[in-house]
Structures are given as C-alpha cells and as structure tokens.
Design brief:
heterodimer; A: 338 residues; 13 helices
C-alpha cells in the first residue's frame, strides 16, 4: 500500500505542473499588459523599468520557473504561517503576492477569508448528494425497469439538464419569495456563536446546498445504477445467494461494495465540476466564497488574485484525484498490485 | 423428386425476397429509437425549437433591439407573448434571436470538439505508439478546472478579438473555440475505446493483409464503424456546449449583454426576477427544455445505436 500511495503521489506532480503551466501560459500569452493600468502620464522609461522589474523581458521558461517558485513554495509557506502563526525562515523578506485592488492586501489573506464558506457549501452539497444518490442508484438497479427505476432515471436526466443558474433562480423564487422559508441572500457577516445563529447559518445554506446537490445527485445516481446493474449480473452474486446469504447481505456487502469502486472515481473527478457549479451558486445567492472572489477579481482585472484562486482550484482538483486513487486502491486490491 | 424440388425452390426465394422488408443498420436503429418515448419526445421538442428559432423572425417580425420605454416591463400579453424587458424590448423576439445564437454556438462548438476528439481517439486507439501520450494528455485536460479557466480565458482574450472581428463575431469565435477546446476529451476516450476493439476485428485484419495503407484503414474501415459513438457523443456535446455558453453568459463573461443569447438574457434580467419573473423564466425554460430534450434524445440514440443493448 505504501509504494502504491507513493507512486500515486509521484504521478500527481506532473498533473499539477501541467495545470499550473496552463494557468501560467493563459496569463502570459494573453494580450493584456500589467502596466496598462498605470497612469498614462508616467514616462515611457519608467514603464519599461517596471516591466523589467516584473521580469517581463525574460524568456518564458525562466518566467515560468520563477512563477512556479512563487506559487508552489513561497505562497504555501505564507499560507502555513498565516494558518498556524509559526514563522519559517525569513518571513518578512519573502515575496508575497498582493492584490492589485484590495489596497495591496496579501492574496492569501483574501483567500483565507473566503475559502471556509465555499468548502462548507460545496462539502455539504457533496456529502448530501452522495448520501442520497448511492442508495437511489443501487435500489433503482436492484429493481431494474420498475416504476422507481424509471422515475429516478427521468429525474436524473432532468437534474443534470437544468442549469444550476436557472434552478438557483427558481429556488429563490419559490422558497424565498413565495414561501418565505429561507432568506434569499446569504448574510456574510453572520458569526456562529450560539445555537440560534447556528440555525440561521443552516437556513441560509440550505438553498445553495440544495441547488448544488440536485445536480450532483443526478450524475452520481445514474452512475451508481449502471455500475450496480453490472455487478448484479456477476457470478459471485449468484454464488452468494446460493450459499444462503440473506438478500440484504448480498446487496450491501457484495454488490454495493463492488459497485462503489467506479463511483468513487466519478465522485473525485466531479470535484472540478462542482467547484465550477459553486461559482454560479455563489454568484446567485451572494455567498462570499472563493468563486465570488474569482468573479470579482476577473471583473476588476486583479490578476494576482485570479492566478492564486486558479491555483487553489488546481491544487484542490489534484488532491481530490489523489484521494480517489488511494480510495480506489483500498476498495480494489487488484489495482494496488498492478 | 429432386428435379421438382430444384425447380420449386427458386420460385420460393423470389417470392420471399420481394415480401421481406429491406433492413439496414440505421433502419434498425430508427425502429429501436422510436420505441423510446422520451427520446421521441426529445426529438420532437428539438425539431420544434429549431424550426421556431429559424422561422421565428419571419412569423413574428418584431425587432429584438427596438427600445420602447412606454411599454417597459410589461407582463405577457397578446402584443408581447413573452412580455417585455426593462427597456420595453420584446422578450419573444429576443428569445428567438438569442436561440439562434445559443443553438449555433452549440453546433459550432460540437463540430470543433468532434473534430479534435475523434482525431485524438482514432490516433490513440489505432497507433499504439501514440496511445500513452495522447491519453495522458486527455486525462490531464480532464483534470483542468474548466469553468474557472474558461472564465479567465474569456476575460483575457475577449477584447482584442472583439476589436478585430466586431462585437458579435468576436464573441462568437471566442466562445465557440474555447468551449470546443475544453470539450473534446469525453469523445476522444469513447472513440479510442471503440477503435481498440475494432482494431482486432477480422475485417481490419483482412484489410491489413491485403495491404491497405494504415491511414485508409482508419479512414475507410474504422471511422465509419465508430460513427454510432461519435453521433451519440456529438448530441450530448451540443447540450453541454449550450449549457457552458449560457453559464459563461450568465456570469457576465460570455456574450456581451447587448447580444441576446438565452444565457445573457438571464444575466441582464436577473435583478428583475421578483418584480418581473417572465424576463427570467422564458429564457431559463428555453435553455432547460433544449438541454433536456437533447439529453433525452442522446440517451435514446445511445440505446438505439449501441449493439450491446440490442438483441
């Protein structure tokens, strides 16, 4: 298992490098100029000096390596210091990426303010969707072609066809405007201090979580269904039944466990998708998460923040892929020894 | 006796040959497709929407950009079946016009995705040397955080393209290329899987032994047999392209607000949702119904064209 995990980590590194290169290239090749926003009265020589100090006249590979050093080494250390309060090495002299618009605030601070909200909403939505989707998928497979199966299939297609921005708008219209059950906007200043404020927090999170989960349930349940159908036909299921195992045992111990193997991959591979969805839901419900930060900084052309947020998305994606691979290895021993 | 039997059989054969209906692969698929009620419903809806969007401007000749402040935010009525927006522009005309753009974005992005996807899949499946490299690349492309990257790419490259090709054409080129570039990976994987199994079939072996060139084996023998998979993938990719375009436009980074697409109609009217729900509902319903119909049809096509499920 140890060597298997090590091998997975080693293969995750090129993926991370690839994503970071795409992000770097996108910004480096873009026609925008970081000195374009400087006052036009600035003499040309000074502009050129600024360009030089930004390293813009160096060749691409060197710029990429320096960029990588900043994002892969300096910023994680900054983030670690910020999170734990322990200072490492030359903490004052280390370069920090600062926002262009938020009065030169370090980007890491901005991210730390906003990441918890996103992780809460996305995490809850994901958990909820798995808890709903897996039983639905397995039961639909077990009673293939029954009314339940057909109804859940149709609902699943509807679920991943409806765009999140439209379901979000609908949900606000129904639950916040007509029924008045939940607040239509997310109160970003709310601090959870006691049970009452906790309930309030829960109430305002229900709608964004619901919208995200609906989409996710659709995808996961379809996948769980097809994977269970495949497993129900296998010989080992017949063996388990014929040795007299209770039906419940056959399904939960044998079928579900084996069907979960591909589902786990899907769940992990769906992570980039759900972060994409989170950007939309945060925009609709005005959740002050990292997706909203991305949109705001794109609109205000705040490239340092944009790059950092993109890198965080990239790291999250790679980390979850890694988790999926490891879970895959635990669930299916054949993969470990391959 | 043997002589009489010999004269009798040809007659019988001729009789049965004229009676039996000619069956083709596509005919069988059509029969199978028609059995799936949801798929037929999807097809009908798509035909309706496409015809409506194409013929709409002739049947309903209202200028989508005509501003009429006196009739601003009017609810649906006989004069304006979908109501009007905050500047008094007719929503039905805007939805028809927007549908043309949204659907053509879907089609164009699908064409790019199919071209790249089937080329990569074909090469990876047939040329063993390229398989590893191309599939690693495909997997890496799949791990990219798509929506965030699309948003950033749109914001960075939009203005220069707009300046070069004009407002609408620039945005169109940009959206289509970017969605196409990020959308070919599922197709590549499906095509590769199918090519891998076709490669070992006898007819390919026969073609190799006869001395057919590799490129024409791929082109003449393997590609036509992957058509079923490509068609299914193409259908589903139109849906996802329309969805992506409307998401980008909804976030304000797709088409500019003065070019109505279904997504940007939602974006520009989202603040009037409570006061004037029709401004948001009609484009939203149109997007949802279109994507739903395409997905239903895609599912039906997959069942109809996938020989494993057919008896």
């Amino acid at each position: 298992m140890g060597t298997y995990i090590l091998r997975r980590i080693l293969t995750a590194i090129p993926t991370l490098l690839f994503i970071s290169f795409v992000i770097f290239a996108l910004l480096a090749l873009s026609p925008g100029d970081p000195t374009a926003n400087l006052p036009p009265s600035l003499p040309m020589e000074i502009k050129l000096q600024i360009r030089e100090s930004l390293g813009m006249n160096q060749p691409m590979p060197i710029r990429y390596v320096r960029w990588l050093q900043q994002f892969m080494i300096n910023e994680p250390i900054n983030a670690f210091e910020k999170a734990t309060g322990i200072s490492i090495g030359d903490s004052e002299g280390r370069l920090r990426i600062t926002s262009w618009t938020a009065r030169g605030k370090p980007v890491i601070d901005l991210v730390f303010e906003r990441l918890p909200q996103t992780l809460w909403v996305v995490g809850l939505a994901y958990l909820l969707s798995i808890v709903i989707a897996v039983p639905v998928g397995v039961y639909a497979a077990y009673r293939q072609n029954s009314f339940f199966d057909q109804a859940s299939s149709v609902l699943a297609v509807i679920g991943f066809s409806l765009p999140t921005f439209f379901t979000g708008v609908l949900v606000i219209q129904i639950f916040a405007v007509w029924l008045g059950w939940f607040p239509s906007l997310y109160n970003t200043t709310l601090r959870v201090t006691d049970f009452d404020s906790f309930l309030q927090q829960l109430r305002q999170m229900i709608m964004p979580v619901m919208v995200l989960a609906f989409f996710q349930v659709a995808t996961v349940s379809r996948f769980a269904r097809s994977s269970s159908i495949e497993n129900l036909r296998q010989d080992y299921v017949r063996t388990a039944r014929s040795k007299g195992l209770a039906e419940r045992m056959v399904v939960t111990r044998h079928v579900v466990r084996n069907s979960m193997i591909p589902v786990v991959t899907l769940i992990a591979l769906g992570i980039p998708g759900i972060f994409g969805g989170a950007i939309v839901t945060e925009q609709i419900f005005a959740v002050n998460g990292i997706g909203q930060l991305l949109i705001i900084s794109i609109q205000s052309n705040d490239l340092p923040v944009v790059q950092t947020v993109l890198m965080i998305f990239a790291v999250l994606v790679v980390v979850f892929n890694l988790i999926a691979d490891i879970a895959y290895g635990i669930l299916d021993p054949r993969i470990r020894y391959n | 006796m043997s002589i009489s039997a010999g004269t009798a059989t040809p007659k019988l054969e001729i009789g049965s040959a004229t009676k039996r209906k000619h069956r083709t692969l596509w005919g069988d698929a059509w029969v199978q497709f028609r059995r799936n009620r949801l798929a037929v419903l999807g097809l009908t809806l798509i035909v309706l929407i496409v015809v409506g969007v194409l013929a709409g401007p002739f049947l309903y000749p209202v200028d989508p950009k005509q501003i009429n402040i006196l009739e601003a935010s009017a609810p649906p009525s006989m004069a304006h079946p979908f109501g009007t927006d905050d500047l008094g522009r007719d929503m039905l005309a805007r939805c028809i016009y927007g549908g043309r753009i949204s659907l053509s974005v879907g089609m164009a992005a699908m064409l790019i995705a199919m071209l790249v996807g089937s080329t990569v899949g074909l090469l990876a499946g047939y040329v063993s040397k390229l398989d590893n490299v191309l599939m690693r690349f495909t997997d890496m492309m799949l791990t990219l955080p798509q929506i965030p990257l699309l948003l950033v790419a749109m914001s960075l490259f939009r203005d220069p393209l707009r300046m070069r090709f004009g407002l609408e054409a620039g945005a169109f080129l940009m959206v289509v290329t970017i969605i196409g570039i990020f959308g070919w990976m599922p197709t590549a994987r499906m095509v590769r899987g199918s090519v891998l199994s076709l490669k070992r079939k006898e007819f390919v072996e026969a073609a190799v032994n006869v001395g057919v060139h590799s490129s024409s084996i791929m082109w003449r023998h393997i590609l036509p047999n992957t058509m079923a998979i490509i068609i299914v993938a193409a259908t589903l990719s139109v849906a996802s392209a329309i969805l992506t375009e409307s998401t980008l436009s909804f976030l304000g980074l797709g088409f500019p607000p003065d070019v109505p697409t279904w997504g940007s109609l939602l974006y520009e009217n989202r603040n009037y949702m409570v006061k004037a729900p029709w401004m948001v509902m009609f484009p939203g319903i149109l997007i949802s119904v279109t994507i739903l119909a395409i997905n239903f049809m895609g599912d039906g096509l997959r069942d109809a064209l996938d020989p494993r499920q057919r008896q």
